[in-house]
Amino acid sequence: MDERPETELVSIPATPRMSTPEILTPSGQRSPRPSSKEAKSSTAWTPTSLISPRFLSPIGTPMKRVLVNMKGYLEEVGHLTKLNPQDAWLPITESRNGNAHYAAFHNLNAGVGFQALLLPVAFAFLGWSWGIISLTIAYFWQLYTLWILVQLHEAVPGKRYNRYVELAQAAFVQCTGETYYDYGVDGFLSSSGERLGVWLALFPTVYLSAGTATALILIGGETMKLFFQIVCGPLCSSNPLSTVEWYLVFTSLCIVLSQLPNLNSIAGLSLIGAVTAITYSTMVWVLSVSQQRPPSISYQPLSSPSFSASVFSIMNALGIVAFAFRGHNLAMEIQVWSSNLVVMLGRVFDDLRTVKEFDWIFFQATMPSTFKHPAHVPMWRGAKVAYVFIAMCLFPVAIGGFWAYGNLMPQGGILGALYAFHSHDIPRGLLATTFLLVVCNCLSSFQIYSMPVFDSFEAGYTSRTNRPCSIWVRSGFRVFYGFISFFIGVALPFLSSLAGLLGGLTLPVTFAYPCFMWVLIKKPTKFSFNWYFNWTLGWLGVAFSLAFSIGGIWSMVNSGLKLKFFKPN
Q: For the segment 107-126, what is each residue's pLDDT rounded down to a tens digit?
């Protein structure tokens, strides 16, 4: 017989602070007794005769002390939240032993990576001025939307949005004016607002995760091939592995590492990914700038035979810039680890702003909070530090790479240019180390970007079966996902075109949806600057998404006609 689902605790409203004046006892506990002036003005009668002695009243009993402590706690906390049991079965929320260090590792690993290597390709089509302008605007735009996500992580008292999709569902339920319901044991959505949130947020985040995994397989496999050629040199066998076989080797390594069960367990990989990304990003542009530039270099934007082709190429280049800042689909998940630090240290905080509450949500933990220590403060502080490092990696690679190679930049990015132009000028050991760091970063980035897809697979399974995934089911999901990504990489081996298309398709996740969510959940005053600003940014993001997607599709078709599908070089 199936067990009845456990009833969730609803929010308990706080006792108003002004309704019961308090004084502090020497022990620091709150006492509900009024001050002396208020006591004199009170008309209530308290019995003081021997018929009702003080030691028989609740004031001196342990029960009264319990009630006083509970009352003070509720006044500080304002609500109680309860963890949804299903969260304990899913990889993102299964382990809750994270800390701020883990959050920093995940942020850097997600924000710095192989996408930086493609930025000089975008500059080759945009030129100096528009390349720097577009990169700067995209950086500050996504930094603003990241701030929005950090603020909305605790937009409702007693609720934590642990996943990007949950926040989107809550926002679009507000848009439709409906009530936010539970998935239920059958796993189906209960309102059109939730379905709208899934269609608008779940699929782009899955596209982004799966597309990033595919791009990682492309660049990881090709880099492993180049690393083998550098290390082996003239001693290589006469029958080396083909590009597709290197893709398969890299995919197999990713699948092995993906067996780590949850987000907490890959913190070590994220640390390796962050360190290697910062290291090889610096090495790539320093090595490129330190070498002599090619004699036929030019900084004029690449031209196309027709005006329409030039427009599509520029749109694809802007899509590459947008793809460089993908990662907001992981913002809510990574913030969970920042919050867990305060649980370990015994600090309690939450934002008690008066916002309309919803009836259901996955709760991050039974985690109270106070006005003095809202969770978004350390989260935003950590995000700012992480994005300083991200800027220190992206801008030098883009500017230094374009300065070193100009419009001679190959479609594979600055790494391919370094090998093509300077493989004989740079010491072989230094060049091999750079390529090895790229491979290590791609392996670790595959795990952090695949985690939302793993979580979606397992959420669907647990919702329908009402039990956690076994180790074999979990392994099966991850092997299936890895080889699907491998198949897509073999079918579409056009890295720069794929990056532009992914940047266009998933641009709303980073640049548009957070602005819409802010307006729908926070409800700024209509026709105010805040209202106009966020609506304008949101619709601009949607328009850019359509334009960049068209440019990416055109570039992919054009490359496919030249390079052939299913035939990687």
A: 777 778 788 899 999 999 99
Query: Who contacts 493 (Cβ-Cβ below 8 Å, separation ≥6)?
Result: 218, 243, 563, 565, 567, 568, 569
C-alpha–C-alpha distance, residues 139 and 133, integer Å: 10
3-state DSSP assignment of residue 401: helix
- What pLDDT, in 10s, does the model give residues 6-17? 443 333 344 344
Q: Within 13 Å of residue 207, how many CA atoms lie on the same side as its CB?
A: 20
Phi, psi values for residue 483, rounded to 5°? -80, -25
The whole-angstrom separation of Cα 321 and Cα 298 is 21
Cα-atom radius of gyration of the chain, to the nearest Å? 28
Question: What DSSP letter does each residue of 207-276 carry, written as one string?
Answer: HHHHHHHHHHHHHHHHHHHHHHHHHHGGGS-SSPPPHHHHHHHHHHHHHHHTTS-STGGGHHHHHHHHHH
- pTM across the whole model: 0.73
Q: Are 544 and 318 in contact (CB under 8 A)?
A: yes
At 174 the three-state DSSP class reads helix
Q: Which tokens is 123 given?
A: 């500059």
Q: Which residues of 537-569 are buried (b: 16+ CB within 10 A; e: fewer)?
A: bbeebbebbebbbbbbbbbbebbbeeeeeeebe
- Find tokens 């300065």 and name the residue: 403
- Its CATH architecture, for the domain 76-347+368-559, is Up-down Bundle (1.20)
Q: What is the 3-state secondary structure (H, E, C) of 112-172?
A: CCHHHHHHHHHHHHHHHHHHHHHHHHHHHHHHHHHHHHHHHCCCCCCCCCCCHHHHHHHHH
Contact in structure between 165 and 194 (CB atoms under 8 Å): no
pLDDT for 224: 93
Q: Give the integer Cα–Cα distance in Å for 218 and 492.
A: 9
State whether the Cα torsion 424-430-432-436 is positive or negative.
Answer: negative
